[in-house]
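Preliminary data (for renewal application), zinc ion complex.
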Amino acid sequence: MLRRAVAVELEVAKELNKLFYSVETMYLNIVREVAVYAVVNNVLSATLLQRLFYRKYRQEYPGLHAHLIIQAIRQASEIAKSFVKRRMRSLVSKPYPEVRSVSIRFTEKAWSYEQFIRSIAPVRLSLSLLGGRREVWLRLHKRFWLYWWRVLTGEAELRKTLIVKRRANKWYAVFIFEIKPKEGAPQSVVSFDINENTVAVSRIDLPSTVDKVVNWNRQYLTPQLYMIRTDFGRLARRYEAIRNAIIEKLKPRFVLPNGNHVNVTNTREYRKCVKRLRERGRKVGRVRHVANELTKSPSIIITEDLGENPQDEMINGVSKDELRHRIKQIPFKAVERAVEEKALEHGSKLFHVSAYRNSRVCPIHLTRLEETGDWHTLQCPLGHLVDRDYASVTNMFWKLTPEAWAKAFWWDLKSLSKNMNWRKHEGKSNPLVPYEIVKYIHAVLKTLKASFEQSPAVLARGSPMNPARGANEDWARTPPRSKGTPAL
Ligand SMILES: [Zn+2]
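Predicted structure:
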């Protein structure tokens, strides 16, 4: 189940604003006091804390809805629990948690949930504030309506608990939608690989019934290759230049009497300037774009198992400082997570294959590729060139097929006995891709191989496999137009 939070601003006039502030103050007091008590006395259970404190706060704040008191106590218990956990890992230095702000939780008893979900187009809600219910109008926007439409069509559900939050002087209602994952027959198999400035994608369209492989129409069988431009590396470089410029500009202001500089990056002025750059925001936008592009239609999505810290592995052996920094800046994990989430939402499934040598093996002959002078181009010992990105995404397809495993093409047997743990890698070739589809992929790859043997000069029909020789990282293609489903 997927969750999406949508914040909607509340229309709050003066009098209502005061009410909200009072409720917030009381709620915050409860959370604070109970959290401190919980940690100091090591009473973390929400039920126990409720037994201890409910009556007290009912008397202290008679106007506050009973359910708000209960929720505040629960929130305190959660905060206390996570504080204790962090303290055990010595991540905190303070003796007890300091709660600075809260989001107020209204259960369905404390707001007009029933009425709200029965409406086709809700524009307001009522909340139990001090001394009864108050109608509050919502400043609704497109994103809310998008999810609301899904509620109406039964694709999503609205959670019963509403969160009310203050940001600066504005009040927001946060609606939580639970989206049911879509199910649909996959229309294509997609593999992708994340590089510094691009994401390489290979796509095999699936005919409507994959078991009729015998009658295929050859022209649809070449895996399409294209690039999605991300420019993560370029972005990192540009921001680094800007950050350096900021440091240079600020330096004169932080000269010590002995002529040295204070480390400018530790100053508040520096952090303020950097915050304004919104580097993260830009990156997040690009990550989402990639995820959307890959999951547009229900697909089987294949990617490498990146491990916990993919950057660290890559950096080993890279000595240039600047390059190390740039690799660090590529949000591998973020892309993977975003794709995983979107995949679920759009009815796609994500599979991982081992990352071992995906870009070091010829996708036609399954032989070990050799370096050429150009980073992007590799040489097959059987006498042709292969583009590195193409090898990588095509080999991910191979790894799903029985051929890769049964015949053990993949592995250099000498190093295998030394370095490889068969079991470990075997487990990662994911056996859960439907067998019919594996058979189909296998047939496509075999066709690719056969067509290459016929005319080795042109790598498997047209440009996709032509190595972009001499091209630098800018090399990017627009996605090919979809050819639709071949007639069978
Ligand atoms: Zn080859």
